[in-house]
Each structure stands twice: as structure tokens, then as C-alpha cells.
Amino acid sequence: MTTPSPLLQVRDLRVDVGERNVLKSVSLDVAPGALVVLMGANGSGKSTLGLTLAGHPNYRVASGQAQFGGQDLLAMNAHERARAGLFVSFQAPPDIPGVKNNLFIRSALNAVREARGQEPLDAFDFLASAREAAQQLGLPDAMLGRPVNEGFSGGERKRNELLQLALLRPRLAVLDEIDSGMDVDGVRAVVRLVQNLRAQGTAFVVVSHYLQLIESLDPDAVLRLDQGCIAESGDLELARGIARTGFARAAEAVEA
Ligand SMILES: Nc1ncnc2c1ncn2[C@@H]1O[C@H](COP(=O)(O)OP(=O)(O)OP(=O)(O)O)[C@@H](O)[C@H]1O
Ligand SMILES: [Mg+2]
Which atom belonging to ligand 1 lies closest to the Cα atom of 22? Predict the structure, then answer.
């Protein structure tokens, strides 16, 4: 049996932010439909990896490669990456004053639909599906008519990231601490949505510090990032070990 070629393949990625080299050498594969959990101490470079994959201009790739669906991801600009089916949620979702949430998400969705060869959704059809998705995520309808994230609470911002995920249905979603700041119902909504999209073929890289969420997601692999390098890879036992002993002890054990 041949193994399917990875949807995302990252090799020896080295990334500088400002004056600082943050990622030293990161290599990872994500197969189509797989779920990979990325753990790591604060400041180890998890968000840097996500934002670099998204094409954020502040994250400069010094060397290395990244292929997404057989294309050279690093040669694509941010909107081309999104159109190709990559979704990266923000750890701290920013406000976009003056831009209505429903218009923002519909524009993004229609760009992705165009790339898939699908007809654009008009405002009426979009609103029907957006309302349904928002309801499932516990977001009041009124959030759709407000400027993106402006005045949203911490948990509402995270739910709004999930709303985009639910509507865009990407090929690969990188979720950066999507559970942080969410109440118990929000965390349940994360698990439900991830399971639902996974069943339809979406692959995930999930960054989280919380074992309970990680266990609920039934990951295919767990990676530990340490000072800009993948220091360990394993399964749920790696996440359980980190939860038991902490990152400092995990790093000492590998060195020993
Ligand atoms: N503009 C910058 N200039 C200098 N250092 C930066 C800059 N941006 C980020 N860094 C540093 O890069 C390192 C990695 O940050 P990153 O946000 O990727 O960590 P993280 O693993 O996501 O941590 P957390 O668990 O706290 O979210 C941190 O030490 C951070 O201070
Ligand atoms: Mg982070």
C-alpha cells in the first residue's frame, strides 16, 4: 500500500522575526485529513510557525521549504495560500474597525469558492448559512453585523475564528490556542467542529496547552517544539508526559 503524499510538508524551516532568529529548523508533515498537535513552552515558536505558514509579512523565511498540496507555499502570497485551502487562526484575533463581520467572511468565502470553481454566494444565501453556523457556535446573530472583532470579548473572538473555519472549510486548518479564553461550551464547540470537518477531510495542526482538549481531539501525532526546533514527536503519551512533568523536565529528559 502506498502512503498518501503529505498535504503539508515543511523542511528545515528557519524564520527570523525582527532581529531575532525564532525558528531554527522545523520539519513536519501533515497528511490529508490528519490531526497533528503542536505543543511547546511559551515563546518556543508555535505562533511563529503558524503565522509564517499563513504568509504574515513580519516573519521572514531565512531558509527551508514548505509544500502545500504539491505547491511551493513560500512562493505564494498570503491570499493565494488561503485560496489554496490554508486557514490559520490567530492566537489573539485582531479588530478590523469599519469592516462588517458578515461582509469580511463572505468576501473570504467567495474568494475561496472561486478558487474551487464554485459560484459566489449572494448576501441572502450567505447570511442563512452564516446564521446557522453562528448559532451552532453560540454566537448571537448580531455579531455578524458588527465590525470584525470590535468590542468582542476574548471568547467571542475565538468563536468568531471558529465561525470563519466552519464556513471556509479549508483543506488544512492551523488553530493557535483556539481553546484559550473559551468557556466549557466553547471548548465543546471546538471539538465538535474539528470532528465534523475532519470527517469531511480537513487536516489540522492544533496548538494547545491543555491536555483535556488534546485528548478529546484524538490526534494522529503530537510534536513538541523547543526553542525553534521540533524536539520530540510522539502520540498522546507525549502530551500526557508533558502535562505530568512540564516542559522543563521534558527538555531535560531528552538531553539526558
Ligand atoms: N518582533 C519580534 N522581535 C523579537 N522577538 C520576537 C518578535 N516576535 C516574536 N518574538 C519572539 O519569538 C519567540 C516565539 O514567539 P511565539 O509567539 O512564536 O511563541 P509561542 O510558542 O507561540 O508562545 P505562546 O505559548 O506564549 O503563545 C518569543 O520569544 C517572542 O518573544
Ligand atoms: Mg503562541
Answer: 12
**What residues line ligand 1, using a CB cutoff of 6 Å?**
17-18, 20, 22, 40, 42-48, 91
Q: How far is the CA of 154 from the centre of ligand 2 (A)?
A: 15
CATH number of the domain that residue 71 is part of = 3.40.50.300
Segment 202-224, tens digit of pLDDT? 999 999 999 999 999 999 999 99
Confidence at residue 252, expressed as pLDDT on a 0 to 100 scale = 79
Q: How far is the CA of 45 from the centre of ligand 1 (A)?
A: 6
pLDDT 10s digits, 167-180: 999 999 999 999 99
Q: Note whether 25 and 12 are within 8 A (CB).
A: yes
Distance 121 CA to ligand 1 centre (A): 38
- Print the domain residue range for 104: 8-255
Q: How high is the pLDDT of residue 251?
A: 72
pLDDT of residue 249: 73
Residue 3 lies in a domain: no
Domain count, the chain: 1
